[in-house]
Amino acid sequence: MKRSQSTSLFQGGMAKTALLESFIKLNPRVMFRNPVMFAVEIGTLVMLLVCLQIAVGGAASQGSLVYNVIIFSVLLLTLLFANFAEALAEARGKAQADSLRKTREETPAKVIRTLGRLKVNELQIIPSSQLEKGDVFVCEAGDIIPTDGEIIEGLATIDESAITGESAPVIREAGGDKSSVTGGTKVLSDHIKVKVTTQPGESFLDKMIALVEGASRQKTPNEIALTILLAGFTLIFVIVCVTLKPFADYSHTYIPVSAFIALFVCLIPTTIGGLLSAIGIAGMDRSLRANVITKSGKAVETAGDIDTLLLDKTGTITIGNRKATNFWPTTGISEERFTASALFSSLADETPEGKSIIELGQQKGGKLPTMPQNAEMITFTAETRSSGINLPPNIRIRKGAQDSIRMMVERAGNIFPDDTAQKVREIATNGGTPLVVSENEKVLGVIELQDVIKPGIQERFERLRKMGVKTVMVTGDNPLTAKYIATVAGVDDFIAEAKPEDKMNYIKAEQANGKLVAMMGDGTNDAPALAQADVGVAMNSGTQAAKEAGNMVDLDNDPTKLIEIVEIGKQLLMTRGTLTTFSIANDVAKYFAIVPALFMTSIPALQALNIMHLASPESAILSAVIFNAIIIPLLIPLALKGVTYKPIGASALLRRNLLIYGLGGLIVPFIGIKLIDLIVGSWL
Amino acid sequence: MLQEILGIGLIFVLTVLLALPLGRYIAKVYLGQPTWLDFMSPLENFIYKVCRINPKKEMTWQENLAALLTINFVWFFWMMFILMNQGWLPLNPDGNPSMSADLAFNTAVSFLVNCNLQHYSGETGVTYFSQLAGLMFMQFVTAGTGMAAAAMVFKAMKEHQTSQLGNFYSYFLKSCTRILLPVALVSAVILVFNGTPMNWEGKANIVTVQGDSVQVSRGPAAAMIAIKQAGTNGGGYFGVNSAHPLENPNYLTNIVENILIILIPIAFVFALGFYLNRKKLAWMIFGVMTLGFFLLLSVSVYFEMQGNPAITKMNINQSLGSMEGKEIRFGAAASAFWGITTTTTSNGSVNAMHDSMTPLSGAMQLIDMMINALYGGVGVGFLNFYIFIIIAVFISGLMVGRTPEFLGKKIEAKEMKIATIIALLHTFLILSFTALSSYVFTQDPSVGWLNNPGFHGFSEMLYEYTSSSANNGSGFEGLGDNTPFWNITCGIVLIMSRYLPIIGPIAIAGILANKKYIPESAGTLKTDTATFGFMVFAVIFIIAALSFFPALALGPLAEFFSLR
Amino acid sequence: MKTHIVPALLMTATLFVLLVVIYPLIVWGFAQFAPEKGQGETVSVNGKVVGFAKVGQKFTEDKYFWSRPSAVEYNAASSGGSNKGPSNSDYLAQVQARIDTFLVHNPTIPKSAIPAELVTASGSGLDPDLSPQGAEVQVARIAKIRNLPEDKVNELVKTHTQGPLLGLFGPSKVNILALNLALDNL
């Protein structure tokens, strides 16, 4: 169904662009946005100066030129790795967005221009990129729609597979909730007039691409808070390293500049610092891969915090419409006779329910009758609240709600049979809809219509519950039916006989209790609720108003998408948290590598701290710095894919992540540094 | 051996048994619920009336802080006045002189900030008037200040959404009259009955059995000793604090005084549980603190009972442990226990000389003060722990995929900024001032500060600033610290490390209290679980280890390894 | 700040009365009922005060049980420990010298029997006690000088030994002033 999604992380072309970007990003003005890596850059510059000084013969005490150059190179590499991570994430996001955008670029648009004094409308063909907001263009069968807009005249079937991957064509028409068309989709039939709703370069997709690109990317509140914490750690290590100089002087120990810089760079949280922006971009990228366009990074983050999820029943919890599931003839009426009448009653019924009755009748062995010549179709009206068919010579078949048929039957002087009345009640309490069938004002039996709950939906709600998300079903059904479906599907709450303002009120009530609410909607009357919700996902097929109001747009129009979005949000936060933990836990091992290395010569007793038994002070320092650098690219896949979210409860999740990333972060560098030392030590 | 271990076990068990009911009582006091001390109300109401204070008037966190800082400001001038004029003020039977300006500054600040770092010796440096009207007065009111600050944070944590954090004066006065005064009174009486002096006479002149002429200092000691322990003030009436046979005459008084050191800090943790009706949270906090405490304690007790390896090499009998700087009546275990309790709280009084303890004991005491949140000072210990909770909540909140929240309040950039600054401050003060003194000493070793050379000398300087920044007050007393350099630098460290860590947590709590309350869900990180407790523990130790590992390596660790 | 300055001053004044005047007077009042009346117990010989029972004093003569080394020479006008670090070489030399002195005065005692307390200074410099071993290693010397049977001196040490609190908690100790006065009274 969906377009194939590339999962390979390092695609050739992308890696090349990212590589180039890594160098461009060395610009201090760009680096300044990331305090941790900016500190590394300063350290690298200092090392460069030291190398130059040694080269001109000015600093004999700093050690050999080769050693210092190696340290400098490793630091530079650290910077490049971090930049590469960010650039790669950007490239992936952009590539994803570009593939969506490509379809709509430079499509010829037949725009209507009002010309001259006589105000004659004329059709001009211009490139889509020149379309302005407010322009009106025309599309006919076979045309690609040049840009996003709203149909102001006409109706058309449209193939949206280019955007959604869904192959079945959809109908879009002026007025109502299905008036919106997307650039890049193809008109299959008919003729529409479309008004452009966005300025060039300001479509949702354009906005999303801007979010991914460095220039206009804004840090989310949580990212800012984390950056503050990381800057705090960086400052601690500035203090530690600066004060180490007089401490060492007191202990009559000489520490070369390279060792100070190495210690500093190893200690500051470069791993998370280098990957932080990549993680954020990757979060947006992942939502894009799920075919969701987010209007801000914050929306993705908020999605992880959602407490309450409002879901429409139809399409989300149940498959489309009700289906006939059973025929219940009254006593004295054979199954065959009832089936035949049921088939007749729905012969001309074009509603989905009617079609499902035909389907069930045929399954039960009934033969689809052909429409007799002078049969008369009785359509549903609000007064009779029944429909049916009049067959010659004088047969009147009706089906309808219990009360309307009962009235008709009793007015004719017949009795409404008790067993059918009983069945009707039974069906209603089971969440079904009973349709009573009568022939010539005599009751034949009852058709049971039931909602069909989507397979697998219970499991998804269970998963949400474990995440701590409360699900609320919104339906126009009566409370009894709604309650039944809610129970079967496993949602926590429902709003029955829902009017648009009910949604709004529910959201406001939840928010007043401090909860974060997400909802999905498509209609114009959903717009206020979408705007009110903390995460409002508008369907791409929805109206422009709905899309403007929400903070995400789902290209697939898939109502269950919210569940995925919540998980993407959680993954994003978890990746940040776990890598921070990992990064900081790493420092313990680095201390045990570098501190003994600094003092081993002047204070032999401190050799005892060299618990890794690293070969020499130089080798120890170099190993720590190299480990510090290569851990960044090693973790790029994790940063981009995100830490897997498991709905096992917060405490269990914390335990799991602490064990993997906390304990792992403690142990891995001991092993890594020792291994590197074995290689470097033999080579130095 | 066994009796010594049993003795310290008894102290801890008794403390916890007393802290539980005291915690419940403290919660009731701050909640304004009836207690058996309600007969104090008329006195309190009289004080409110005289002071023109309406104790029922709720104030915002900013107003409360302003009240707190103003009254502290007043006390500073009061202290400076007394100390610089004690020579002619009353109650000076020994004719002790007035203090120099720099020593008076250091002493005034030190007692103002509940630290009680003493660069003078009690017997010769101050008069009885200064001991009571200056030092002992501060020991009550500064403890009350810290407790009032914690009470405000309690209040902020309890309310769903409020901008009002109660009334500072009311919290403060109740802390003094309802908690500190009764505890001090009971303990002072126990001390007096065990032989601690409470009189107004000057030094006694005596010719000893062997015929030496000596003097014996005394004075109104019992009243002060009780509150200096209970209010985690520390210091001492006498120069060597509770190592002095009159200040701490026997094993029983040692038990009483040692319980007093940690009683209110532990009771405060339980008080939080009772106050918020979140007993599990209190047990989590108590668990984390106790785990850290026992880790440090066991190392210190082990090495003190093992004795000094250098003396072991001399082949004499060290079965009693390392006895340099210790008293026979307490023994090695109780001295090590006191050493850890006095550094774990911000007490800082000693019953043995920390300078002479084995290197790793010194390291444990240093780490204790570098963390400064295991039990901690009265009131303020919890405030420091609160900062660590905020940081732990932030990181672990992310790890479970939610933007972090604590007790239903979102932790965002502003709170993180404050928490980070406060966490950073301690490291900054300790390391940068130790660096400064190391630099000065390296430039001119003839300044003659250090009583011990090498690694241990470095530890002496590190200890002094760590103790100052933790508002602890104990010292590696070999350091010649009564010089303008040390008096002034320590004074600066003391002021900064007292008020910023009070302002910070109150600001965070005040901001959080103002935020919308978010009810718990299955996705919310529970903060009263063992898992989260472990996380807090890890955050505390990792931050301390990362900040201080190099300094510790060059001081006590280097000494430890070189002694092996 | 302005609005708080008057309450701050008044609060300071009222609390001064409560905490600095009333509280110490109450404690002092209780002290009058205590066995030592808050004065500190003194010890007299022939009506002359020779010391405070709880404050240690210097005993260096061979006929007395020596008290521990003291950084303040047992002058309780002040108090203090040596504050020597465990690795200080000057200090360790001093300890070695004390061991040597002890061995000269107690030739029958093997080095390994010397308790560390006898060669290390106490924290207060006023430690009134020794451990039972600390007294026992000196018995031979005292018995010899005073011409007493060792058993008798040992017996004296035993009767002056205070066991742990309630027999369970803390170390055992011997008050040297009391022991030496008892020795003189034998």
Automatic annotation (TrEMBL), chain A:
PROSITE patterns: ATPASE_E1_E2, COF_2
Residue numbers annotated as active site: D312 (4-aspartylphosphate intermediate)
Location relative to the cell: Cell membrane; Membrane
Keywords: ATP-binding, Cell membrane, Hydrolase, Ion transport, Magnesium, Membrane, Metal-binding, Nucleotide-binding, Phosphoprotein, Potassium, Potassium transport, Translocase, Transmembrane, Transmembrane helix, Transport
GO cellular component terms, semicolon-separated: plasma membrane
Main localization of the protein described in the UniProt heading: membrane
EC class (word): translocase
Protein name according to UniProt: Potassium-transporting ATPase ATP-binding subunit
Subunit structure: The system is composed of three essential subunits: KdpA, KdpB and KdpC.
Domain P-type ATPase A as annotated: residue spans: 119-213
Automatic annotation (TrEMBL), chain B:
Origin: domain of life: Bacteria
GO molecular function: P-type potassium transmembrane transporter activity; potassium ion binding
Keyword entries, A-Z: Cell membrane, Ion transport, Membrane, Potassium, Potassium transport, Transmembrane, Transmembrane helix, Transport
One CC-aspect GO term: plasma membrane
Subunit and partners: The system is composed of three essential subunits: KdpA, KdpB and KdpC.
Similarity comment: family membership: Belongs to the KdpA family.
Protein name per UniProt: Potassium-transporting ATPase potassium-binding subunit
UniProt source species: Runella aurantiaca
Gene responsible for this protein: kdpA
UniProtKB/TrEMBL annotation, chain C:
Subunit structure: The system is composed of three essential subunits: KdpA, KdpB and KdpC.
Function per UniProt: Part of the high-affinity ATP-driven potassium transport (or Kdp) system, which catalyzes the hydrolysis of ATP coupled with the electrogenic transport of potassium into the cytoplasm. This subunit acts as a catalytic chaperone that increases the ATP-binding affinity of the ATP-hydrolyzing subunit KdpB by the formation of a transient KdpB/KdpC/ATP ternary complex.
Keywords noted in UniProt: ATP-binding, Cell membrane, Ion transport, Membrane, Nucleotide-binding, Potassium, Potassium transport, Transmembrane, Transmembrane helix, Transport
One MF term in the entry's GO annotations: ATP binding
This protein's encoding gene: kdpC
Coiled-coil stretches noted in the UniProt entry, renumbered to this chain: none
Pfam families linked: KdpC
Topology relative to the membrane: Single-pass membrane protein
Organism: Runella aurantiaca
Localisation per UniProt entry: Cell membrane
Protein name: Potassium-transporting ATPase KdpC subunit
GO cellular component, one term: plasma membrane
Main location: membrane
Family according to the record: Belongs to the KdpC family.
Chain segments annotated as transmembrane: 6-31
InterPro entries hit by this protein: KdpC
